[in-house]
Amino acid sequence: MSSLEVQTSQDEQSGAYRLATAEIVYHMPDQPQFLQTFVWQTLDLAPEFPRVMQFIANWRDEIRANLHSVRISTRDTVTPVIIDRAKFGVTMH
To answer: Model pTM?
Structure first.
């Protein structure tokens, strides 16, 4: 990753951009009885979500999968993940 890409990402995180998660539920034309899920994340501008909308438009144009539904969720700030150690463990054979 170049320094330009890192700087752009930092600018996006500090500005009006938010982490947007799109959950796309779709089915393939040859098996319409099965729904499948695709999850995609990007930094985007709420409430218009231009990047997500562009992704969905590209999906409709380029992918042979019929959209069932799209759910978009967002978070105001990007924060580090906190990982806690497990208090116990179980092994089953």
So the answer is: 0.65
